[in-house]
Amino acid sequence: DGGITQSPKYLFRKEGQNVTLSCEQNLNHDAMYWYRQDPGQGLRLIYYSQIVNDFQKGDIAEGYSVSREKKESFPLTVTSAQKNPTAFYLCASSPGGGNTIYFGEGSWLTVV
Amino acid sequence: RKEVEQDPGPFNVPEGATVAFNCTYSNSASQSFFWYRQDCRKEPKLLMSVYSSGNEDGRFTAQLNRASQYISLLIRDSKLSDSATYLCVVNNPPSASKIIFGSGTRLSIRP
User: Which residue of B has its CA nearest to A95?
Assistant: First the structure.
């Protein structure tokens, strides 16, 4: 099946630890995205990538890092510098150029 | 000013009612506009794209007003299953691929 796969679905992290959220797509999309959603809030853009080996900061990039070494993969690392990382993280992809974006099922990160 | 602004609601309307949402955007160069629907604790899903000429899909109608920089969504004959959060989505040039979401409008349909 074509789609976007995020893993893990639920993740618990101790304070001070880095964690990496995986996002893989087999839609052959050029653009990929990471958004963060806090309870009762909208989606905020963390990073996006329009092409392999290139990515841009979104509105809340501090404390996060990404890589785009392969077209199908766009992992997000939540570093210890992110002060309040507990949130719902959504990965998305798109053909690019302002076309419709499609989401994975999301990853719930909780800091304990 | 936020790039995309929506009335957060909640809108609480009876089944069968017509309800309308508006969304304003700040970048006059934006070219892509969408409405997404998000159910509680789920990922957003595309409801419809919004075209300059307006478009309709069953009970849903979307309009774009470039002069005033807003888009609208009209839901007619609302169903219980329409209860969800509706997200306004706009691209943000100069990067056509930078996609920004509004904070969403919560809709609750009561029997």
Answer: B97
Q: How confident is the model at residue A2 (pLDDT cuts 50, 70, 90)?
A: low
Which residues in chain A are contacts of B87 at CB distance < 8 A? 42-43
Give the Å distances, CA to CA, from B78 to A24, B50, B60, B75.
36, 20, 10, 6
Would you call B43 and A104 a contact, using CB atoms and an 8 Å cutoff? Answer: yes
**What is the 3-class SS of chain B, one letter each residue?**
CCCEEECCCCEEEECCCCEEEEEEECCCCCCCEEEEEECCCCCCEEEEECCCCCEEECCEEEEEECCCCEEEEEECCCCHHHCEEEEEEEEECCEEEEEEECCCEEEEEEC
Half-sphere exposure of A72 (CA within 13 A, CB side): 9
DSSP-derived pairing of the beta strands A107-111 and A10-13: parallel
Beta-carbon count within 10 A of A16 CB? 8
* Pairwise CA distance, residues A76 & A87, whole Å: 13
A56: helix, coil or strand?
Answer: strand
Q: Do A103 and B44 touch (CB under 8 A)?
A: yes
| pLDDT for A62 beyond 80 | yes
| pLDDT number for residue A81 | 85
Query: A21 pLDDT exceeds 80?
Result: yes
